[in-house]
Amino acid sequence: MNILLLGSGGREHALAHKLAASHNVHLFAAPANPGILRHAMLANINVTQHEEVVKFCIASDIALVIIGPEALLASGLTDTLREHGINVFGPSRAAARIESSKAFAKDFMMRHGIPTAQYRTFSDHEHKQAREYVAQHALPIVIKADGLAAGKGVTVAKNHADALEALDAAFDGKFGKAGKSIVVEEFMYGEEASIFAISDGERFLTLAPAQDHKRIGDGDTGANTGGMGAYCPAPIITPTVLHCVEKQIIEPTLRGMKAEGYPFIGCLYAGLMIDTEDNPKVVEFNARFGDPETQAVLAVLEADFAQLLYSAATGKLDTSCVTFTARGAACCVVLAASGYPGEVRTGDEITGIEDAERFGNGTVTVFHAGTALHNNLDGTQSLRTNGGRVLGVTAHTHTLPEAITLAYQALKHIHFRGKTYRTDIGYKALQRYSLNTSKAL
Ligand code: AMP
Ligand code: GLY
């Protein structure tokens, strides 16, 4: 089966790695990165030009297109491909609004009784009303740009001055069109977790629950990022919580989307806040796999992954190709460039990836994100940094404490100037482990 994978981040490298291990798959990728190209042939196309993607698919007999990034989904590429009879794992533009418009997602959740924070939406011509509403709202308060803002459109404000500043900045164009409308939300207490549901528009399969680490600094401090590390399975998602998430969140969402005429085919990512076991709430939905959660979630998945996504894309979800959704445990630590999530320098040489993987002896995989090959003057090539998040060092073994230790030992082998990472990925789970162990003693 010929598959075209679109995207160029750590998530797509993890997808490529898993697809390549599936039965009878020939993989193409674009724009890709050097890690993805270890498993795939480069498709020489501009992925933002829908017609170019269609032409490539027809010429290369592509049986399935898998779309990684949200921007491509929001652009309606899925719709164009489907109009040409090409199978796509990824939602239509209408279904992707569950991520691309926070106001849409909140209104949808209200219509379908899906638990989430109380909110109000304002557009930029309601600036004054929005300021009045925010000024009298209980603290903390959350201000969100409506549209896609690469994870940077959300401010959790502890005082009214910061909240008003965030509101003014959004309406003054800080996020461009994405901030023309905003959502003002009550603050939810609890611990966050991410659950991915693979859906054919009707049926679904939830993969192992993961936890991301969105802040740049240890102890969840500092600026929000795309994600600095993840582990899986996340013990906060007990079987009771998972049952509630499926019944109260995933099922009504998929049912509601189908009933409203835009069934969700792809990976529905539920970002959750867990306070009490029987009342999980939605922080956000994404219309795609998470990054870096995917690197950990796919490590523990034992399945013919290509077959699973193909069956979803063709409307016949086949869970018989999954042996285990959570075999062992995995931890992914992101190595970022200095300055991330702000401006970063690129072009620094990266060494030691093979050493890290060799050290792991089969348990460690280093996923590329912001990397590029550089042609040296002597005719050789070297790997250079080419973005904020550079690599995801992922360890997969029997238990989470072991996976965390292995990932941290492995990343010591990798070097580039300004290498930055959190030293506490998985710390909440480790606290839970030690709690459970002391309870058992
Ligand atoms: P989002 O892009 O909506 O996922 O928001 C980014 C981050 O902001 C989330 O991962 C949470 O840590 C935080 N956040 C967003 N909304 C809320 C909320 N209503 N209550 C508490 N924290 C929130
Ligand atoms: N890890 C957060 C995201 O993918 O949106």
Task: Fill in the keyword field for this structure.
441 residues, alpha+beta, Rossmann fold, Dna Ligase, domain 1, five-stranded parallel β-sheet, five-stranded antiparallel β-sheet, 14 helices, 24 strands, globular, binds adenosine monophosphate, binds glycine
Structure in words:
The protein has helices at residues 10-20, 50-59, 70-74, 77-83, 93-100, 102-111, 127-135, 160-171, 239-259, 293-300, 305-313, 353-360, 400-411, 427-440; strands spanning 2-7, 26-31, 41-42, 64-67, 88-89, 119-123, 141-145, 154-157, 181-186, 191-200, 204-206, 211-212, 215-217, 221-224, 229-232, 265-274, 281-286, 302-303, 322-324, 329-336, 364-368, 371-375, 381-385, 389-397. It has 441 residues and is an alpha+beta fold. Among the domains are: 2-92, Rossmann fold, CATH 3.40.50; 118-186, Dna Ligase, domain 1 (2-Layer Sandwich). It has a 5-stranded parallel sheet with strand order 3-2-1-4-5. The protein has a 5-stranded antiparallel sheet with strand order 12-15-20-24-21, sandwiched between helices. Strands 6-9-7-8 form a 4-stranded antiparallel sheet, sandwiched between helices. The longest helix is centred in the middle third of the chain and has 21 residues, at 239-259. It is globular, with a radius of gyration of 21 Å. The chain starts with a strand and ends with a helix. The mean pLDDT is 95. The chain binds adenosine monophosphate (AMP) and glycine. Glycine binds at residues 151, 212, 227, 286, 290-291, 293.
